[in-house]
Amino acid sequence: YRQQVRDACLMLVQLGVGSLAVYEEDFEQPFLRQTRDFYRAESEAFLAENPSAISYINQVERRIEEETARVYHYLDSSTEKKLVEVLEQELISRHIHTIVNMENSGLTFLLSNERYEDITTMYNVLSRVPEGPKVMSQCISAFIRERGQNIVRDTGSTNPLQYIQELLQLRSRCDEILRSLNNQAIFRNQINSDFEFFINKNTKSTEFLSLFIDEKLKRGFEGMSDSDVDAVFDQCTVLFRYLQEKDIFERYYKQHLSKRLLLSKSQSDDQEKSMIAKLMAECGGVFTSKLEGMFKDMAVSKTLMEEFMQTLTGAPSNLDLYVRVLTTGLWPTQSTSPRVSLPTDAVEAFDTYSSFYLNKHSGRKISLHSNLGHAELLAVFNGSTVPAEPALAPAQ
């Protein structure tokens, strides 16, 4: 009967003499009403018999494809848009909350079980109606906030490394979710808002993120390629972006960096500078100027020590001295160094270096900060040599 139906529709179109009024009034409007009634009843029956969101989504896709094909074979092409709108209203809009929130098969279930292909399928269908992305975004937001707040509750006050690692894992999971949703802005913006919400509920997030980076830079990234290391820094930068109190993070980062540099605990200057470059890209040069200045001090100190060693003549000193000259205001130091009685050899060595430095830079001042340095002491007990490590000194 395909040809007969098509001929009948064509006749109605031709009766309009350049207008679709006869076709629309005598056929299209009753046809769309009956189609609406049919799919309203079918969708309700299908959901009652098949409590599966993905099964229903697949059924909707089939029905839209079938009806679009029927338009091509039987009806005037102007009917297609109106017919699809009827299907979208009856099959999607009327049941959208039921589909998304369906127990053991809805969006929360798909997110929990990382069924990203099914999430893509659901999005492709639900995004056909204006409210679809918003309803999905609200469900995804509730899912992420619940897991984020669980992380804050379970490890947010006691275990810095595990806390940040779990946040990074959750953020990586969100990247998978975004890829399944074509990285649409509505989902990307909502996820960013969710992370900012629960990360800043924990007042220790700024300190813990700095501690996590500190641990990575001290222990190194054994077995990881440069691209993998860079990816870890990128993930940390994403978490940093969510912090509202970036000035507090800067304070902690400066403290941890100073210890790594002064105690020679950093595994790689290139990795240190890479991380600082990423922070600078986020906040500008003012934010990282002191961090960069600290590295410059280390480089200048190395050059000064090489020049100083060349000036030494006569008998060697009883100790090996290495002085780091720190610029006032760059380093998280105390304004005054604690009063410490140093051994005579240490005092004489520092006085020698002070004379060298002041002769080279007239008009400057230099003072010893013994609380920021370290020394290795050799003691003899029962004839064996035992190293120990009390504190000694950079200069400022």
What does this structure look like?
- With 396 residues, the protein is mainly alpha-helical.
- The protein has 16 helices and 2 strands.
- A hairpin with a 2-residue loop joins strand 1 (377-381) and strand 2 (384-388).
Summarize the structure.
The protein has 396 residues and is mainly α. The protein has helices spanning 2-15, 21-49, 53-74, 79-92, 96-100, 107-112, 116-126, 132-155, 160-180, 185-199, 205-219, 226-242, 246-262, 269-283, 285-311, 344-360; strands at residues 377-381, 384-388.
Secondary structure: number of strands = 2
What series of H and E elements makes up the topology? HHHHHHHHHHHHHHHHEE
Q: Give me the side-by-side strand order of the main sheet.
A: 1-2
Largest sheet, in brief, is:
2 strands, antiparallel
Tell me, what's the shape?
elongated
Structural class: mainly alpha
Helix segment tally: 16
Q: Which regions are unreliable across 5 or more consecutive residues at pLDDT < 50?
A: none
Structure keywords:
single chain; 396 residues; mainly alpha; two-stranded antiparallel ribbon; 2 strands; 68% helix; 3% strand; elongated
Topology:
Blueprint: H1 2-15, H2 21-49, H3 53-74, H4 79-92, H5 96-100, H6 107-112, H7 116-126, H8 132-155, H9 160-180, H10 185-199, H11 205-219, H12 226-242, H13 246-262, H14 269-283, H15 285-311, H16 344-360, E1 377-381, E2 384-388
Antiparallel strand pairs: 1-2
Helix pairs in contact: 1-2, 2-4, 3-4, 3-7, 8-9, 8-10, 9-11, 11-13, 12-14, 13-15, 14-15
